[in-house]
């Protein structure tokens, strides 16, 4: 509790801490260390009072989890067990050093976790998680030791364990855009700070520019690009390994128990009836290596929470993915009748990604800054690259429909198949622009508690037919998807 309170205060006051570090020599050491000791004692007192005033228990009569907390303003939170959507067991680096675990309870009713328990033992965390995630009252034992022993035996027998080699394969074949963005942000910040430093220093800027112009030949640029690509791969591999190290999937009461993480470990349960959207993605290299990625979305509170609530299974083969899908759906998803987009989708994508950017580039070059026209030789490369992405993205864009599944296929390089079952649909939106009526094309958006699935510029007559069919299934279905 002390470490948690300390890091929260440090995050809030980090600008002051940075100033103190840079001006440490100018500070009065007696006042500084006296103040630091007083702050630490204050944090320790606050942490102790938080610890003393925090209690939790299960109200068996009302089937609720009760959390009581607060120092001056007391808060009493009651969470109905039947409304609990997700329970996660986490362990940060500090918690691992101390030997405790954190537990988070989410009912998908707000944009934050409804209940957070910072420091409990592993056995208690497992037993409490089992009790909270057990919706039906029958078969629940009051013996915590029996529940804990059963859970631990389940954790010791994972039916899928992702090896370090598989994580390395995923690291070198996926998430290029995210890694490039993070590294570019780092280098841009470094460049801006470096330029600010040079402007405030005594360096001769003209002499530096002359040196840069003479040194940066084409071979140097090529080496820098190669180094940058290698850095992207290394960064991506390290990120994947740190996040998903020792990834294990176990069966527990017809649910999936996932645990992973090197420094910050996480344990979470996936209940099949609460799964909303399941995505299976694979690119060319992953297909050759016999690995694919799964993303599972359960009910969430909004767009921001949707991104946080996505559960990733980073690397499994075809047999393992089929085993997971069988547990989630009791059957394998089969692609049914195919709906294709109209050619106008490709035309519009080319207009947005090629025509508009090039028009802006040429207009800016001719009328504002003619010097940028020196980059004209790179225009054909851009057109070919972006045009290829748009074309393959259009060719892979499909909607497959059968009685049991709705599957949307998309992607230019990473081909993703998003799957939902009709009875978990919450609402359906169809739209058609007036200039699309003559071509009989339109769009549809399927809303679920875990996000939306959209298909654009398809055969609108068939879209309306399936929309009516799905709405009928929604009204007549009695499935418990929450």
Keywords, separated by commas or semicolons:
single chain, 482 residues, alpha+beta, PH-domain like, 5 domains, seven-stranded antiparallel β-sheet, 16 helices, 20 strands, 48% helix, 24% strand, globular
Architecture blueprint of SSEs:
Blueprint: H1 2-12, H2 14-22, H3 29-53, E1 55-59, E2 64-69, E3 75-80, E4 86-91, H4 93-98, E5 101-106, E6 115-120, H5 122-133, H6 144-155, E7 160-161, H7 164-173, H8 176-200, H9 205-215, H10 218-244, E8 248-252, E9 255-260, E10 265-270, E11 275-282, H11 284-289, E12 292-298, H12 303-309, E13 311-316, H13 318-329, E14 337-339, H14 343-367, H15 379-396, E15 398-401, E16 406-410, E17 415-420, E18 427-431, E19 441-448, E20 451-459, H16 460-476
Antiparallel strand pairs: 1-2, 2-3, 4-5, 4-10, 5-6, 7-8, 8-9, 9-10, 11-12, 11-17, 12-13, 14-15, 15-16, 16-17, 18-19, 19-20
């Amino acid at each position: 509790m002390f470490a948690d309170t300390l890091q929260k205060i440090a995050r809030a006051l980090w600008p002051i801490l940075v100033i103190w570090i840079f001006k440490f020599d100018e500070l009065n050491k007696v006042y500084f260390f006296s103040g630091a000791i007083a702050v630490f004692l204050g944090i320790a007192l606050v942490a102790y009072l938080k610890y003393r005033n925090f209690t939790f228990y299960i109200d068996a009569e009302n089937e609720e989890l009760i959390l009581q907390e607060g120092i001056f303003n007391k808060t009493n939170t009651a969470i109905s067990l039947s409304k609990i959507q997700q329970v996660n067991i986490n362990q940060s680096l500090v918690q691992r050093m101390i030997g405790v675990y954190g537990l988070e309870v989410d009912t998908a009713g707000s944009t934050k976790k409804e209940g957070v328990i910072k420091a409990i033992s592993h056995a208690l965390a497992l037993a409490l998680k089992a009790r909270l995630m057990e919706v039906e009252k029958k078969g629940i034992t009051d013996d915590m030791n029996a529940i804990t022993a059963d859970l631990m035996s389940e954790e010791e027998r994972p039916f899928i364990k992702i090896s370090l080699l598989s994580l390395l394969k995923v690291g070198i074949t996926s998430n290029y855009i995210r890694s490039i963005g993070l590294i570019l942000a780092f280098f841009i910040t470094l460049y801006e700070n470096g330029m600010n430093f040079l402007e405030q220093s005594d360096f001769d800027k003209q002499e530096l520019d002359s040196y840069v112009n003479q040194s940066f030949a084409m071979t140097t640029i090529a080496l820098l690009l190669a180094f940058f690509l290698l850095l992207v791969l290394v960064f991506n591999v390290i990120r994947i390994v740190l996040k998903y190290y020792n990834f294990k999937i176990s069966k527990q009461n017809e649910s999936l128990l996932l645990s992973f993480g090197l420094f910050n470990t996480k344990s979470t349960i996936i209940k099949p009836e609460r799964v909303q959207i399941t995505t299976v993605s694979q690119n060319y290299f992953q297909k050759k290596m016999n690995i694919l990625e799964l993303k599972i979305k359960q009910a969430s509170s909004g767009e921001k929470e949707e991104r946080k609530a996505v559960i990733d299974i980073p690397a499994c083969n075809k047999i393992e993915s089929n085993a997971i899908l069988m547990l989630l759906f009791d059957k394998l998803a089969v692609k049914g009748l195919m709906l294709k987009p109209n050619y106008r989708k490709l035309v519009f994508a080319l207009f947005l990604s090629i025509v508009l950017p090039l028009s802006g580039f040429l207009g800016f070059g001719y009328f504002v800054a003619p010097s940028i026209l020196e980059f004209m030789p790179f225009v054909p490369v851009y057109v070919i690259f972006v045009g290829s992405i748009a074309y393959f993205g259009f060719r892979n864009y499909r909607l497959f429909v059968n009685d049991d599944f709705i599957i949307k296929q998309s992607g230019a390089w990473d081909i993703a198949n998003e799957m939902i079952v009709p009875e978990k649909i919450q609402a359906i939106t169809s739209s058609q622009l007036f200039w699309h009526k003559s071509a009989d094309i339109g769009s549809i958006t399927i809303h679920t508690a875990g996000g939306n699935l959209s298909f654009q510029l398809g055969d609108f007559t068939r879209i309306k037919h399936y929309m009516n069919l799905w709405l009928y299934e929604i009204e007549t279905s009695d499935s418990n998807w929450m």
